[in-house]
Design a protein that fits this description.
Strand content: 5-15%
Shape: elongated
Distance between the termini: 91 Å
Helix content: 25-40%
Length: 340
């Protein structure tokens, strides 16, 4: 159904066209009465015809068209020779007439200009959504079209950008449970941690760690560990140690052993010492835990008036001694974050 008339809103001079020059206002009214402009507001570019209807020169008409385009009253696409009067479909009462709206939406799908289709889709989304079907005055069923569906058809929304996966930094054992048993088939849980691996509020991988132990003469010795080795190197060494342990203990957890080996490297132990500790645990058929590896590497700290010399882990196994303090309570290593 072709247009036969144009609607001019009473407030267009003060609200819509306010600020435009006289030629731009005149050419806008000429565009509203352009026979090729359909119900969705799109028509053919005919500058010579418009200049004649407005009694203007072609240069004056082109200048007026640029002014209308700069103020977003119209969209002109020279590549497709199409012009779009932006608010016509809303101001012409098209949405109130279901059959006229149906024709306008069909015409909208035929627009060739991508720029016009994009702006036209924005105008269609400003219309009310699809109304419920009804019955005409003559009793015929009326099916209302959906302007929002047509808007999505002529200007599909951009596909959502999938979120980027979170960047996982180097793993550290400060976020892990320091009492976790790492070998398969064992439910034991240790009670002590590696040097600097305590769960206290002062824990931190890059900070120096102080460990309190007994020297051979019975005096207390504070040892401060230096900064950790580079993470990449620690990861590679820990993987190699975990592979070595997996070859000797196939039922062990490769990932768990790798983590505890990396933590031991960060605590300042060298590769050979860690590998020897793992081998002793396998030979004794014992589980790899934070507590067991710590004892294999350091041995329990001893402070006892009845035992003047430092007793290592191997000596304790041979003599079956249980280090105690003066009050008879068992002693344990003091690590950072320890409430003792």
């Amino acid at each position: 159904m072709a247009r036969s008339e144009a609607r001019l809103q009473f407030g267009m001079w003060r609200a819509g066209l306010d600020g435009l020059g006289p030629h731009a206002k005149l050419v806008y009214c000429v565009l509203l009465t352009e026979p090729t402009v359909n119900h969705c507001g799109v028509g053919a570019i005919r500058i010579g015809r418009w200049a004649k209807d407005a009694s203007l020169t072609v240069d004056e008409t082109e200048k007026a068209l640029r002014e209308l385009a700069d103020s977003a009253h119209i969209v002109i696409d020279d590549d497709t020779d199409e012009v779009f009067v932006r608010t016509l479909i809303r101001n012409d009462g098209v949405a109130a007439q279901p059959y006229v709206l149906k024709g306008a939406l069909k015409e909208a799908t035929r627009v060739a200009s991508k720029a016009i289709r994009r702006v036209l889709a924005a105008e269609l989304r400003k219309l009310p959504p699809r109304q419920a079907d009804g019955v005409s005055k003559t009793g015929k069923p009326v099916v209302y079209p959906d302007p929002h569906a047509t808007a999505a058809e002529i200007d599909p929304p951009a596909p959502p950008v999938p979120p980027k996966p979170p960047q996982k930094g180097p793993e550290t054992l400060f976020d892990e449970n320091p009492l976790e048993t790492l070998s398969t088939g064992s439910m034991q849980k240790g009670s002590e941690t590696l040097r600097g691996g305590g769960g206290g509020s002062g824990g931190g991988k890059s900070s120096p760690v102080t460990t309190q132990v007994e020297d051979k003469d019975g005096s207390s010795l504070a040892r401060t560990d230096e900064a950790d080795p580079p993470t990449e190197t620690a990861n590679k060494i820990a993987q190699a140690l975990a592979r070595h342990h997996r070859e000797r203990q196939p039922l062990s957890s490769f990932v768990a052993v790798m983590k505890i080996c990396k933590r031991a490297l960060e605590a300042g132990y060298d590769r050979d010492a860690i590998e020897a500790a793992l081998d002793r645990l396998v030979a004794d058929n014992r589980s790899v835990t934070f507590d067991s590896i710590r004892i294999e590497l350091d041995g329990p700290a001893v402070r006892s008036t009845s035992q003047p010399a430092y007793v290592g882990w191997q000596n304790l196994k041979q003599t079956d001694l249980k280090p105690t303090g003066t009050d008879g309570t068992p002693l344990r290593a003091i690590t950072r974050g320890d409430p003792s």
